[in-house]
Amino acid sequence: xxxxxxxxxxxxxxxxxxxxxxxxxxxxxxxxxxxxxxxxxxxxxxxxxxxxxxxxxxxxxxxxxxxxxxxxxxxxxxxxxxxxxxxxxxxxxxxxxxxxxxxxxxxxxxxxxxxxxxxxxxxxxxxxxxxxxxxxxxxxxxxxxxxxxxxxxxxxxxxxxxxxxxxxxxxxxxxxxxxxxxxxxxxxxxxxxxxxxxxxxxxxxxxxxxxxxxxxxxxxxxxxxxxxxxxxxxxxxxxxxxxxxxxxxxxxxxxxxxxxxxxxxxxxxxxxxxxxxxxxxxxxxxxxxxxxxxxxxxxxxxxxxxxxxxxxxxxxxxxxxxxxxxxxxxxxxxxxxxxxxxxxxxxxxxxxxxxxxxxxxxxxxxxxxxxxxxxxxxxxxxxxxxxxxxxxxxxxxxxxxxxxxxxxxxxxxxxxxxxxxxxxxxxxxxxxxxxxxxxxxxxxxxxxxxxxxxxxxxx
Amino acid sequence: xxxxxxxxxxxxxxxxxxxxxxxxxxxxxxxxxxxxxxxxxxxxxxxxxxxxxxxxxxxxxxxxxxxxxxxxxxxxxxxxxxxxxxxxxxxxxxxxxxxxxxxxxxxxxxxxxxxxxxxxxxxxxxxxxxxxxxxxxxxxxxxxxxxxxxxxxxxxxxxxxxxxxxxxxxxxxxxxxxxxxxxxxxxxxxxxxxxxxxxxxx
Lengths: 459, 202
Known about the structure:
Structural class of chain A: alpha/beta
Mean pLDDT of chain B: 94
Number of strands of chain A: 10
Distance between the termini of chain B: 62 Å
Number of helices of chain A: 22
Helix content of chain B: 25-40%
Order of helices and strands of chain B: HHEHEEEEHHEEHEEEE
Structural class of chain B: alpha/beta
Strand order of the largest sheet of chain A: 1-10-7-4-2-3
Number of helices of chain B: 6
Low-confidence stretches of chain B: none
Oligomer: heterodimer
Radius of gyration of chain B: 21 Å
Shape of chain A: globular
Number of strands of chain B: 11
């Protein structure tokens, strides 16, 4: 599933080979961002909502221990079995053991970025269990044997013609058919059959309420509900940071979530699961997988406030032009770039650099995570810990040498201008990364220093 | 075997909780509760507008006879189930206690909602009103009966109204099932109902 070890820049190069597609990707996501703006501007108290959501999440992180215990107590009293998983491996084992107990070898799953993070599908597949993703976008990337490229719009990188081809191959739709309405109807038929024949369903969790032990799952398609209400066993997987204190807090988050994500006033379904239905078994798996480590980092802990709306991705000038797969992690984009280095600083050392630090992500974040500041802080940590790209290190050293001596600085400028003027091939070549997508600037006759000296004399 | 497993799980639980306790920042207070700041002048009208925008069908009716007429006109001869005693004559009898899988070919399900929300056209429905959790999701078309006086302004008011009510399952449903996963083209009827009609009754 994972791409071979290439960094963000190398993976972006692959995506950027097809310029027309990049433009289309960029415009499509900007369209979603524009819808978000319209929805936000319709709410005069929007900023107050964001501030309140941010403070609720701050409170959650500051008292997470008690909230987790409170949630567990209430969920258990509601008849739900609560499991704790320290890491991805334990999460996968727990899910597997529940399925084994029920002798289930095929199941359905609605969207859960946590199970993507834990690579649950691959794990279950290796253990002979067939998983079908039921979110349309996720099903499409599953058929294409790719990971999702976006946490809300999993196949946003795919053109409808490619989806038509996939459906032709796997679902038997007519060749060349690429009409979204037709393809969605075909998927509906295929997945309805699946819903009716699977005995176990996995869902994610958007919010879990400590006060009541209930959890809320939001979808537009209704796939989480179709799965959960027909299955004998419902397993809900969640990161420990999904807790909110009280049921009434949902009012704040449900007002923000979908307006930030797609510009809708609310998802079609905001389902509150509290107790299993008679005869059904319900499980919740609470997963740490690095979250307690992130909680220990004062500069980065508030990334755990994220409600996974993807507004930061839709607005990001880098994400829109590099595609979700260039981030080589389950959660792409700006938020993914501050979550991933916590899990593996070496593997994801490139991600905090995949940003212009323009700050647009922080401005749209519904829970006010200072995303761009954290990206900047991660860069410093990564360089200090010795994980930075050696080319970058070398360039920085050269810069330090040049800038720390006025003599070297002056002569470096002169040399640069001379080479650009009389030997342009020395800079206008493939080795110069800057030149690859740009024309080099016209060579000035003199430096500012020289100009200033001359004009001061004439004064 | 199961004994050792249990011990291992206890260990993860304790480990996680200990790490959380050690790493969580100093106490930060919960903010004040929000309430509706900018109420719509006419919540019913706002509800109708949003519902139409999200692909729903708003039908204002005087009484149950009007609902019966509407359903007979639009769904004659199809499989209809309803949880409302007022619509018993239109509904299949004795459907409530079947295996939920058998509802896959229900054309129309008609159920009550507790209330609607003006800002997003969501209606709040709990398990007791569904009889079977699967019903509002598996039917091809969903119809909701909602009292005209039961429309609140925002989600803040919605949760005030729900308060500490007890339910096993409840859902806010806003419009028909939908997806825009293929090139952002909106398609109604992803997995659940292809259409949603809300009868608003006096």
